[in-house]
Amino acid sequence: MNGEAILPYIIIIPLFGAFSMPIVSLAGRKAREAWAVLISALTLVVASALFYHVWDTKEIIVYTLGAKTPFGQGVDFPIRIVWEVDLLGAIMVLTVAFVSFMAILYSIGYMKHDTGLEKYYTLILILELGMLGIAITGDLFNFYVFLEIMSIASYALVAFRNDTWEGIEAGIKYMFVGSIASSFVLLGIALLYGQYGTLTMGYMAIKILENPTVTAKVALALFIAGLLFKSGASPVHMWLADAHPAAPSSISAMLSGLVIKIGGIYAMARILFSIYSPLANKILEAYNQPYINMGAIGWVIIIFACLTLIIGNAMAVIQTDMKRLLAYSSVGQIGYILLGLGIGLAAYGTQTGEVALAGAIYHTVNHALMKALLFLVAGAVIHEVGTRNLNELSGLAKTMPKTTFAFLIGAAAIVGTPPLNGFASKWLIYESSAVFNPVLGAIAIIGTAFCTAAYVRVLYTFFGRPSERIANAEDPETSMMLPMLLLVLAIVVMGLFPWQISDKVMIPAARMLEQFKFEYIQALISLAGGA
Amino acid sequence: MSDDMGVIVRTMARATIPLIGIFGAYVVSHGHLTPGGGFQGGATIAGAGILFLLAFGLSEMKRRYDKHLYSALEGIGGLVFLGAAMLGIGTAFFYNTLWHDGPVFNGEPGTLLSAGYLPIMNLAVGLKVFTGLVSAMAAIALYRRWKS
Question: Tens digits of per-residue pLDDT, A8-30?
Fold first, then answer.
């Protein structure tokens, strides 16, 4: 199969679905729901094909918009927008398409009693589109456009249930913080464009290596600041704890599972490894040329990661609101991913760094599945019982056994219990952090202790003595149960083959990202002959 | 009490709304030749709609404004844009096959029927922006929390 031929459909299909949604929904609610499910299922099919292609060939796909090659006539530098997909991007595309499909399937039952659903399904498809775009793009400004598409769709979706002030307040707060973060990123892009005169990521990397100026360093600082905001790292995680619980649960699953990772972690990894090439900076350092100290950047990220994983997990322990607990737990898990990313950068070129990076990528995927499952369970509980206060949910295991089972699997996976998928990724991060610096390993373990405490508390509530409030609750309908069970299945199956997945998918993805042979730049430059 | 702005404003609005609309249509259709384009022209036409809303009041706007029609038109604008982008999918997404191979919109650069898919996209974006902005203003006017 030709990867370049199917790549544009990853954007075309959700875009077509979103634009045609107002017309399709004139035919009634059944047509609208079927259309949303069909579009996201098709996207998942294309995403799987794309992932399989990139994984199989181990080659970076470069796709040019509007022409055969990105190089203009008579010039030797790329002038067109390119999309560039390496294995990390393909993994992200597959994760986004899968979790979005689950969330849309779940929405059929969960959003049944809401009005204005044509806007809801349009926005959810646009949110998916924005995330897919970020994962495949190879152009800085195109990245910013998709980042804004994703962000604006998620602001609107957080405030979707505008009958209570909670959603509106959270949406406005999210919008302010998100806009500040976006403007940091935009300022960074503007500085780089002004300094180097290009927006193509691969070519920008060459330009920065030729002349690593102060401007490039300032832009890097702005990128890291903006993207830490977007990923919800401490000390700027306060918007996340408001926005994620206030959204409808299917949206919370997408926000916590995908948006903070694609818009934060993935974008940061792309910028740090593909634009500011750590290998080339090491070479420049060895030859006493001006360079950018990427090891120090790695340590900056590690410090934020340690803060995030302690604060996030510790705050999760003391929450009484179930969704708020899950949101803080997301902050904590982002800390682990950032820790892996930071060590990957600080220990660049060593086995430890590679393992840490692979662990970060692996945990990104795993956490997307686990947190989506947990938020869907929380949504089912809200749907049936009407409250998310943990003090009133005692004894839920009696009346909602399947839902409680799904929660048990999700909680065990997120804590890192061996037969489930969270174990392998967390193990890679613990192992590499302990080898890199034992103090970091200890901090990671302390974070997990807090995380365990938080989830044990919820499980204790669920298995406790039944309260009156939950007497009439029962397991939700099939359209809500099915996505949960599929996610449980994914978690268990991924948990059965932890090291195979790590060796076959995650380590190659980390290696492609580290670009020891400048693969990302090579893939772009190799097209120059055809101009 | 009616919520329009009085006979002077209404008369002026009657005179200027068509002119604003024509100017917006000019900006849209010459988007590939002169400054401006689909978004700017669409916003100008939406200005005419907003002037109508202000001058004639919300009750008149409610009678003339059909939510389903506008949201369907907005969707059609987006779909036409996407369709124009997909014309050259054989070469690449957004490949301007009309401009390179014809048969229409491949005239001398600087004339109206040139630039391939750009005029089509400008018309689509103009439609989308006009319907979207008018719908947004109508929604804001409908949901205001105070009464006169």
Answer: 888 999 999 999 888 888 888 88
Kindly state whether residue A525 falls inside one of the protein's structural domains: no
pLDDT at A530 over 50: no
Which residues on A lie below 8 Å from B92 (Cβ)? 8, 63-68
pLDDT at residue number B106: 76
Interface of B with A in 66-85 (CB under 8 A): 68, 71-72, 74-76, 78-79, 82
Q: Is residue A326 part of a domain?
A: yes
* Helical spans, DSSP H, in A29-164: 29-57, 87-110, 117-136, 140-158
Inside any domain, residue A209: no
Bridge-based pairing of strands A82-85 and A61-64 is: antiparallel
Q: Does B96 touch chain A (CB under 8 A)?
A: yes
Residue-number span of the structural domain to which A352 is assigned: 305-496
Tens of pLDDT, residue by residue over A403-455, are 888 888 888 888 888 888 888 888 889 889 888 888 988 998 898 899 898 88
- Could you write out the DSSP letters of every residue in chain B? ---S--HHHHHHHHHHHHHHHHHHHHHHHTTTTSS--HHHHHHHHHHHHHHHHHHHHHHHHHHH--HHHHHHHHHHHHHHHHHHHHTTTTT-TT--HHHHH-SSS-SSTTSTT-STTHHHHHHHHHHHHHHHHHHHHHHHHHT-----
Report how many domains make up chain A. 1
Q: Which residues of A touch B72 (CB under 8 A)?
A: 22-23, 26
Which residue carries 């959810």 as its tokens?
Answer: A124
pLDDT at A245 over 90: no
Determine contact: A64 vs chain B, CB below 8 A: yes
What is the SS3 assignment for A114? Answer: coil
ipTM value for the complex: 0.85
Q: Do B89 and A22 touch (CB under 8 A)?
A: no
Domain for residue A423, yes or no? Answer: yes
